[in-house]
Amino acid sequence: MTSEETPGDLFHPGERQLQERFDSVRLADRIGGLTLHDVITERDRAFIEGRDMFFLATGDDEGNLDCSYKGGEPGFVRVIGERTVAFPNYDGNGMFMSTGNILLHSKVGMLFIDWEHQWRMRLNGVASIHYDHPLMAEFPEAQFIVEVEARQIFPNCPRYIHKMELVERSKFVPKAACQTPDPEWKDNFEEDLPEEQRARRALAAAELASLEEAAAPDLESGLAEGLVGDGDTGDGDAEGTEDGKR
Fold this sequence. Notes:
5 helices, about 35% helix
């Protein structure tokens, strides 16, 4: 809760209606007063920057809503100010449903979850898109950076979080000094892909074909030598058998 707010300022009429129906006004005011804040603490920073995924809720200017999963390496969401976080937008299906909503209606909700230790935190705020951002250099293949200025930060009751452990991070998360593989579904939309991607994929296919063509003579020679070697071994075995008979 900010210094200018009172517990009564935290909740809108819809929330109050249900709190009154279920006699939770006192509880809501108490918890809200203790946990809601708009400045990112060191504990908040450690939790946010330790996550490798979060859920992002957005809406357009007509009230249509969208919720999407965002994944990356731990630390791909950065705390860059006492009220501001930032994260990269990577290549997707080209629809830009979440970030397109931000251009029309900037309010967003972010939900961070630690599945292994069963803890979660929400950050609600105002988002903006930046095509020329200092963090672009730190996130390979980022299309742009999204900043979110926090309006509300608060933990949630973790009792319904299912305990899960990480098995493997996605191989499609961009990393420095290595080529990110394309998902197989793009093969079905080759003619519809952005021009840059089509050119890159065509170049990669041509390079692969060239390597395979260059390796073909060596492969054929190796097979031929193997066949000759097998024949020699076979003759030796045959002679040995004849010697044994004599």
